[in-house]
Amino acid sequence: MSRFGVETIYLDLPPFVGAFSRRLHDAGLPITPARSADFARALTLVEPITRRRLYWTARGVLVSDHSQVKTFDSVFFEVFGRQVDDEPFDPEDETADRRPQTADGASRSAEGVGESYADRGLRTTDQHDGDDSPETEVPLLLASDEELLGSKSFDALEPQELARLYRLMSSLELATPVRRTRRQVKSRHGSRIDMRRTLRGSLRSGGDPVHLRHRKRRVARRRLVMLCDISGSMEPYARAYLQFLTSAAGSGPNAEAFVFATRLTRLTRALSSRNPERAIQRAAQAAPDWSSGTRIGDALKAFNDRHGRRGMARGAVVVILSDGWERGEPKLVAREMERLSRLAHRIIWVNPRVAADTFAPKAGGMAAALEYCDALVSGHSFAALQEVAEAIKGDRPVACGLWPVASDAEPADNWASATPVPGSSVAMPSGHGPARGNTTPGWVTDE
Amino acid sequence: VSADEAAGELRRLVPDVETLAQRLAAVDYLVDEGLATSMFLSLRLPQPLLLEGEAGVGKTEAAKSLALVLDTPLVRLQCYDGIDAAEALYEWNYPRQLLAIRLAESSGQSLGEEELFGPEYLIRRPLLRALEHPGPRPAVLLVDEIDRADDDFEAFLLELLAEASVTIPELGTIRATHPPVIVLTSNRTRDLHDAVKRRCLYQWIPYPTPEREVEIVRRRVKGVSETLAVQVANAVSRMRDSDVQKPPGIAEAIDWVAALDLLGVEALDAQTVDRTLGSVLKYEEDQEVIRAAGLDQLVRSE
User: Fold this and answer.
1) What is the pLDDT of residues A344-394, one digit of tens each?
2) In this structure, are residues A222 and A253 in contact, taking their beta carbons and an 8 Å threshold?
3) What is the C-alpha to C-alpha distance for residues A156 and A179, in angstroms, rounded to an integer?
4) What pairing do the DSSP bridges indicate for beta strands A264-266 and B172-175?
């Protein structure tokens, strides 16, 4: 099938469509039989005379997202060869948005990452599950797990403990604050009149709307965006945080998860599996830059440019999990944090090193970012992650009153007197901005 | 006009990809082969077309131009947070209904629910208007920025995308006699549901090459000199390659040329760029970035 002509198409249409669709499917594109049928019909319509026309026809019908283009290209070029015609056949030199999805690239990184993260114990749950107690004993296990693991730092966890931690984490409830949408729902005491229901009622009373029915604006949870640092310095925590991301991504349709080290990888899709084990495996395969250096500024810029600015971060609760050890320019971190803070409702920075006695926000990236965070929490252990969940909720003052709450929810002086305790969570020196309110409890270091 | 005749009409109007591309060019919308093929297939399969791309690359224009080529109305539905069936599909005309009830009562008649919720009391919103378009050629339905609507609305659109029909509880299913050509656009603020994507053809519109951009700009701003168009296209392309938050789209390039043209500028230099930068870069930070890199750099010829 290296040479392609009009006659071939007419003679071999069904087998060609079948074979090509199957190859794309094997390469990971979601090709359904219905799509293949569309493709066959499309081919009869355009009668592709050139390889270019065939390319665009196939791509128009069979590709359903920009991230699939690279995979599609690699399969197409494999089957039909690269074009060396007069016109350059460079259908798309896109802004390198997606991970490399070329068929062999994907499998290569899959192998590499798969191995390395098996080393880190991410797969041990499988083995663990095998000799684990039956389902019915889970509650008992939960209690003791929480006792055992609750305050143990993630970097000190044994692989089998990590496996148990995963189960614990799924019990964490991650709920963002609500906002009012424009959509309306029935309500007994809503502020607006539901004309349709009122009118139906008035039919029975001769056109007099005796009983007014009401509607009110529906509330919806804000979007939750998680950005997790998986660079070398975060490695002991990254495996636990990845599970945390899975819980977050599974917490509803309105959650997004990204990981970054030297580049930004969107994991929302990879994590949205009902099976958390598989989700984590897929996520590890998707992100090729495990344990490399950190470029927080670049990652934040990539997020702002590709996703945040388009609307993903607008009004959202953004959680950044990173130790702030930046290899690049702290100035860039500050600039991108400022951009992000203009878009987001709240920014919560989770830094496991906050828990250390000697912590001071001096790491270049951390210091630069601090001004724009609404809360800085440690999240170094399961107990500390519960604080993160509280910070995400953020709509009422938390028990220990350590981080700022938007002023419309609570006057600032309510918690301004709270004494920040070094080691668990630290309140922000700033916190102004329309979405944030004015909240300045003073900033604590550990001197 | 029967459905067959309508299909014949469409076949006559756009027999192949090249003809469609030429007809689009005739209404000043220039397409590359990828977009032309997708638009052609969308018309002839027929199947809804989902367009994505950076802001200002001409996603909305694509639908408008298609309507011009077909010489049919463009029905535009701008999506927003919270849009629902009452704003997209239909709403009942409550004041008229109330009046009808009163009228019936005063003349001693009884008014049933079937009469009250009949077609004459229906307010037709964009989706319904597109479905009820009488032909002979299909209307073009533009569902703009679908990613701004919520999941519920996407689910609601599915029936329309797949069957070219909608169901109104009081009236039953309304099926289009001439199914509209449906163009959806998205800015990718969130992932669309797979079920929606499955029903659509998909096309990503990239920024045009500088040569293509010169052509587009000259078609949109009549009488502008080629020198100026080339300079602007080059400058805009350099801006896109630089470190700006919001790279200028074609729309901004056109605005800029129009502004320069109005000011009587014949050739771009650092000073005129400085005066008019606001029509192409809309963020203070972006202007700073470009100024710091040197406005001379922007207008140098290769």
Assistant:
1) 888 999 988 887 777 777 777 888 888 888 888 888 888 888 888 888 887
2) no
3) 39
4) unpaired
- The C-alpha atoms of residue A121 and residue A157 are separated, in whole angstroms, by 10
Kindly indicate the confidence band of residue A290, based on its pLDDT and cuts at 50, 70 and 90. Answer: low
Chain A residue numbers with beta carbons less than 8 Å from the beta carbon of B116 are 199, 203
Q: Check A69 against B92: CB less than 8 A apart.
A: no
Q: What is the pLDDT of residues A199-220, one digit of tens each?
A: 777 777 766 777 888 888 888 8
Q: Do B44 and A45 touch (CB under 8 A)?
A: yes
Instruction: Yes or no: say if B67 and B33 are a contact pair by the CB < 8 Å rule.
Output: no
**A346 touches B: beta carbon within 8 Å:** no
Comparing alpha-carbon positions, the chain B residue that sits nearest to A193 is B94
Nearest CA in chain B to A255: B190
Residues in A touching B94 (Cβ below 8 Å): 195-196, 199
Type of residue found at B126: P
Cβ–Cβ below 8 Å for B37 and A57: yes
Q: Are A379 and A243 in contact (CB under 8 A)?
A: no
Q: What is residue A399's predicted lDDT score, i.e. its pLDDT?
A: 33
| Portion of chain A with pLDDT greater than 70, in percent | 62
Residue A192 sits at the chain B interface (C-beta within 8 Å): no
pLDDT of residue A129: 38
Single pTM value for the model: 0.70
Look at residue A146 in the predicted model and tell me its pLDDT: 55
Q: Tens of pLDDT along A298-319?
A: 889 989 888 887 778 888 899 9
Which residues have CB under 8 Å from A415's CB, separation 6+?
A397, A401, A402, A404, A405, A439, A441
CA–CA separation, B153 vs B159, rounded Å?
11
Which of A183, A195, A256 is opposite residue B94, by nearest beta carbon? A195
Task: Return the biggest CA–CA distance within chain A.
Answer: 82
Cα(first)–Cα(last) distance of chain B, in Å? Answer: 57
Contacts of B47 in chain A (CB under 8 A): 38
Contacts of A305 in chain B (CB under 8 A): 245
Joined together, the tokens standing for residue A390 give: 């509280």
- Number of cross-chain residue pairs from A and B with Cβ atoms under 8 Å apart: 121
Buried-exposed string B266-285: b where 16+ CB fall within 10 A, e elsewhere? eebeeebbeebbebbbeeee
Residue contact A60–B202, C-beta within 8 A: yes
Residues A248, A240: Cα–Cα separation, whole Å: 13
Q: What is the pLDDT of residues B210-249, one digit of tens each?
A: 999 999 999 999 889 999 999 999 999 999 998 888 899 9
- Give CA A217 to chain center in angstroms: 28
Interface contact A257, partner B, CB < 8 A: no
Tell me if A90 sits within 8 A of B32, measured CB to CB: no
Task: Give one DSSP letter per residue of A336-383, joined into a string.
Answer: HHHHHHHH-SEEEEE-GGGGSTT--TTSHHHHHHHTT-SEEE---BHH
CB contact under 8 A, B37 and A56: yes
User: What is chain B's Cα-based Rg?
Assistant: 24
Q: Which residue from A minimizes the CA distance to B105? A: A206
